[in-house]
């Protein structure tokens, strides 16, 4: 599952999607700007906007859209398009400014050109800015540290800068589920079950220490731990009394940046159904299972996976 910044960037890959921002409020992840006519103004604007998003949770900078300031405590609103005349030129200049004016450099930044109509040089430039792990980044234009807060980009306070310089890179765990599959139930001839596997990926830049997944117990799925090697849980299984069960890694069960691990197998019992020919089929009810993933230094991330009803014929 992608974060808010990544999802927004993926959505803004066409002119119609960019224009659909008109009337929408800016927020902590979206900053829309007109391209300044003066070079000095462009330098100040880009350095400030990029630093602000990078020092927060990352976000998307859209060049070629106009946003209007609202009264105090209200977010700015995107009001109109202000497309640039040459997206290629603006993209090249923008990336150069970021490289020269933001320190330290930002890893993982992406920029795309969006033509306002087919075969046109004019349009928009959309930039994905990932969050900066560890120490904050600053503008070399005015030597300030900025932070995106709501729809505003403000200089960081001393305590915020101090806290960030003491920070180490963090893990960012994302939770996935494999596609459901139906199989014979181990050690039970003629009985079928539906399973899927819990998968965790660390998309952060730090080690994930003391990782854990917890699952809502009343979803209709249960923990499987059979002699089948693929069913063996990687982490310790704990059945709590608060309506959840969990899989918890110990001190040595770290997940490295970029690593993907299959952690456990969940299964659902089916119901036998007889058709007109008396051959046996199995029905599996639709279900929603609530899951949470967490590790040291990361708030719990919750997600609900929907599993559709299914009829299975082993023949």
| CATH arch. level architecture of the largest domain | 2-Layer Sandwich
Q: What shape does the CA trace take?
A: elongated
For the terminal residues, how far apart are their CA atoms? 35 Å
Rg, nearest Å: 25 Å
| Class computed from helices, strands and strand pairing | alpha+beta
The ordered string of helix (H) and strand (E) elements is HHEHEEEHEEEEEEHEEEEEEEEEEEEE
Average pLDDT confidence is 89
Catalogue the unreliable spans.
none
Estimate the helix proportion, in percent: 10-25%
What is the number of helices?
5
Beta content comes to 35-45%
The number of strands is 23
CATH topology of the largest domain: Methyltransferase, Cobalt-precorrin-4 Transmethylase, Domain 2
Mind summarizing the main beta sheet?
5 strands, antiparallel
CATH level 1 name of the largest domain? Alpha Beta
The figure for the number of domains is 2
Notes on the structure:
This protein has 315 residues and is an alpha+beta fold. It folds into two domains: 4-165, 2-Layer Sandwich (Methyltransferase, Cobalt-precorrin-4 Transmethylase, Domain 2); 173-312, Immunoglobulin-like, CATH 2.60.40. Helices cover 17% and strands 38% of the residues. It is built from five helices and 23 strands. Strands 11, 12, 13, 15 and 18 form a five-stranded antiparallel beta sheet that branches. Strand 21 (287-295) and strand 22 (298-307) form a beta hairpin. Helix 3 crosses helix 4. The longest helix has 16 residues, at 39-54. The chain is elongated, with a radius of gyration of 25 Å. The mean pLDDT is 89.
């Amino acid at each position: 599952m992608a974060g808010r910044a990544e999802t927004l960037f993926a959505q803004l890959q066409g002119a119609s999607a960019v224009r659909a921002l008109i009337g929408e409020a800016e927020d902590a992840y979206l900053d829309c700007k007109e391209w300044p006519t003066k070079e000095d103004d462009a330098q100040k604007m880009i350095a400030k906007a990029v630093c602000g998003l990078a020092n927060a949770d990352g976000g998307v900078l859209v060049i070629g859209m106009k946003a209007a300031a609202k009264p105090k405590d209200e977010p700015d609103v995107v009001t109109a398009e202000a497309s640039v005349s040459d997206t290629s030129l603006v993209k090249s200049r923008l990336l150069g400014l970021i490289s020269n004016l933001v320190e330290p450099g930002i890893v993982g930044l992406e920029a795309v050109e969006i033509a306002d109509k087919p075969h046109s040089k004019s349009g928009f430039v959309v930039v994905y800015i990932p969050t900066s792990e560890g120490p904050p980044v600053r503008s070399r234009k005015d030597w300030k540290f900025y932070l995106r807060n709501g729809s505003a980009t403000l200089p960081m306070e001393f305590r915020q800068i101090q806290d960030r310089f003491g920070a180490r890179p963090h893990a960012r765990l994302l939770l996935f589920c494999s596609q459901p599959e139906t199989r014979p139930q181990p050690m039970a001839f003629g009985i079928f079950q539906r399973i899927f596997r819990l998968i965790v990926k660390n998309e952060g830049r730090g080690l994930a220490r003391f990782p854990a997944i917890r699952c809502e117990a009343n979803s209709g799925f249960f923990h499987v731990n059979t002699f089948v090697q693929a069913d063996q849980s990687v982490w310790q299984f704990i059945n709590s009394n608060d309506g959840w069960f969990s899989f918890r890694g110990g001190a040595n069960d770290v997940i490295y940046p970029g690593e993907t691990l299959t952690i456990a197998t969940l299964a659902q019992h089916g119901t036998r159904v007889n058709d007109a020919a008396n051959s046996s089929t199995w029905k599996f009810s639709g279900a929603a299972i609530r899951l949470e993933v967490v590790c040291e230094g990361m708030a719990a991330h919750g997600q609900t996976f929907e599993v559709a009803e299914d009829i299975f014929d082993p023949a």
